[in-house]
Amino acid sequence: PFLDPFPPLPGLYTSFGFSLFAFASVVYLVPKAGPSFVKAGLWGRDLLKVYGDPVPESQGLICASVYILTLILFIPFAFSDAFSSHFNSKSKSEPEGLSVNEFPLYQLSVYLSSILSIIIAAILGFLDDVFDIRWRHKLPIPVVASIPLLMVYFAEGGNTNVVVPIPFRGMLGLGALVNLGPLYYIYMSLLSTFTTNSINILAGINGSEVSQALIIALSVILNDLLYLPWPVDFSIPVHLLGSQREVEIGGVWSAGMAYGSREMVERHLFSLYFMMPLVGVCAGFGYHNWYPARAFPGDTLCYFAGMAFAVVGIQAHYSKTLLLFFMPQIFNFVLSCPQLFGLVPCPRHRVPRFSPETNLLYPSRAKLESKDGKPRPPSGLAALILRTFSVLGFVELTFGHDGEITETTNLTILNVLLVRFGPMREDRLVKVVVAVQIVGSVIAFLVRYGLASLVYDG
Ligand code: UD1
Ligand code: MG
């Protein structure tokens, strides 16, 4: 069955134009607004520099504001199809007005609930910048912020099945699909907690937060573009993409175009509408945040950008692909767990140590001692984890006379890179982080479109 031709491109071009505008606004506004932020007490010292001048902090607020306004201004364009059919039907002197059934109300609710979740995340991030909220207090907030998304997902009769990889089917006696039911909703709400926090804890060197967000957003965009009905035959990758869905939904694009249902194209268009302006604001902000930084993103940027990723992953139904783009963040999170959950002491800042003499960064260390400065040997579990990390080359340990661990390098990917590759300048380390993120995305695409067909019947 052939679907009606569906012209997705006008909205895409408009969104691209809005994204350029968002980029230019952020480039212009950040230096303009900086002094007001400093005046309001929103500034920080660059920990890895010799100078101590105040650098405006929480500038992610400017990005979030421009981003949210762009998304809101774009609403009428996202639904331009509905307008044009409205006016066309008028000219043919058919009954006036658009009946509720004709207007894509469901898509509108997807769009609005997404904006709502992103706004909540931006508010949370800003409050965190101002009040330094304890993380056990702020952890549940993204879960609450994701309720509007989950409700809309449910309203659509959202899929809660997961495809079981072929090797596990026989082993566990499972079918091709397993319905996770409510567990799937818990997974999706935790996804938003993960995406919001994981970028924030891979931070502390100029440009790191914003470049992670930028590369993930560009990867998501590339993935979305694969699903659009291009008027050329990309049959090799597209065949892999489409074949499974084609059976599920029964839609095929006209000959020579990409396979895929109209529904799938609409979802990826929705994702593009949210990701392109994100790239705009992140690129604009990256210009000022790049080494040596003239502005800091604050938690506001990490939170709203993280929530934007959760939103598209959930609403456009590709959360697992999305997580593949977060591989460096997943690694950094798993590595951080002993410090996050209190097995190993966690200093306020885990950023690398800067030496003014050499102008290089070295791995920073955490002393294994209690709050009053007395040595506190690690618990059996903590010692086991640290020794394992040490064997894997992730940490450097220091031992006391009795062979107990007295110090470890902090458990972040930044310190791992310094342990592995040796001391380096801050601008070099951020380029290494960028390279890691890009390599991660390349692997993600290989896994998603190469390996996936080995373990899943696509
Ligand atoms: C997270 C990290 C913390 C890291 C901090 C750096 C965890 C659990 N928390 O804390 O280890 O030290 O981010 O952002 O992993 N800063 C710089 N250069 C930069 C960016 C930030 O020196 O390029 C400093 C500035 O002093 C800035 C401060 O970090 O004011 C911002 O820290 P904040 O975002 O509040 O830290 P957290 O997100 O709580
Ligand atoms: Mg932060």
UniProtKB/TrEMBL annotation:
<dbReference type="Pfam" id="PF00953">
    <property type="entry name" value="Glycos_transf_4"/>
</dbReference>
<keyword id="KW-0472">Membrane</keyword>
<protein>
    <recommendedName>
        <fullName>UDP-N-acetylglucosamine--dolichyl-phosphate N-acetylglucosaminephosphotransferase</fullName>
        <ecNumber>2.7.8.15</ecNumber>
    </recommendedName>
</protein>
<comment type="similarity">
    <text>Belongs to the glycosyltransferase 4 family.</text>
</comment>
<keyword id="KW-1133">Transmembrane helix</keyword>
<dbReference type="GO" id="GO:0003975">
    <property type="term" value="F:UDP-N-acetylglucosamine-dolichyl-phosphate N-acetylglucosaminephosphotransferase activity"/>
</dbReference>
<dbReference type="InterPro" id="IPR000715">
    <property type="entry name" value="Glycosyl_transferase_4"/>
</dbReference>
<feature type="transmembrane region" description="Helical">
    <location>
        <begin position="199"/>
        <end position="222"/>
    </location>
</feature>
<feature type="transmembrane region" description="Helical">
    <location>
        <begin position="429"/>
        <end position="451"/>
    </location>
</feature>
<keyword id="KW-0812">Transmembrane</keyword>
<keyword id="KW-0479">Metal-binding</keyword>
<feature type="transmembrane region" description="Helical">
    <location>
        <begin position="61"/>
        <end position="79"/>
    </location>
</feature>
<feature type="transmembrane region" description="Helical">
    <location>
        <begin position="139"/>
        <end position="155"/>
    </location>
</feature>
<comment type="pathway">
    <text>Protein modification; protein glycosylation.</text>
</comment>
<feature type="transmembrane region" description="Helical">
    <location>
        <begin position="324"/>
        <end position="344"/>
    </location>
</feature>
<keyword id="KW-0328">Glycosyltransferase</keyword>
<keyword id="KW-0808">Transferase</keyword>
<comment type="function">
    <text>UDP-N-acetylglucosamine--dolichyl-phosphate N-acetylglucosaminephosphotransferase that operates in the biosynthetic pathway of dolichol-linked oligosaccharides, the glycan precursors employed in protein asparagine (N)-glycosylation. The assembly of dolichol-linked oligosaccharides begins on the cytosolic side of the endoplasmic reticulum membrane and finishes in its lumen. The sequential addition of sugars to dolichol pyrophosphate produces dolichol-linked oligosaccharides containing fourteen sugars, including two GlcNAcs, nine mannoses and three glucoses.</text>
</comment>
<feature type="transmembrane region" description="Helical">
    <location>
        <begin position="167"/>
        <end position="187"/>
    </location>
</feature>
<feature type="transmembrane region" description="Helical">
    <location>
        <begin position="270"/>
        <end position="288"/>
    </location>
</feature>
<keyword id="KW-0256">Endoplasmic reticulum</keyword>
<feature type="transmembrane region" description="Helical">
    <location>
        <begin position="11"/>
        <end position="30"/>
    </location>
</feature>
<feature type="transmembrane region" description="Helical">
    <location>
        <begin position="108"/>
        <end position="127"/>
    </location>
</feature>
<feature type="transmembrane region" description="Helical">
    <location>
        <begin position="300"/>
        <end position="318"/>
    </location>
</feature>
<keyword id="KW-0460">Magnesium</keyword>
<dbReference type="InterPro" id="IPR033895">
    <property type="entry name" value="GPT"/>
</dbReference>
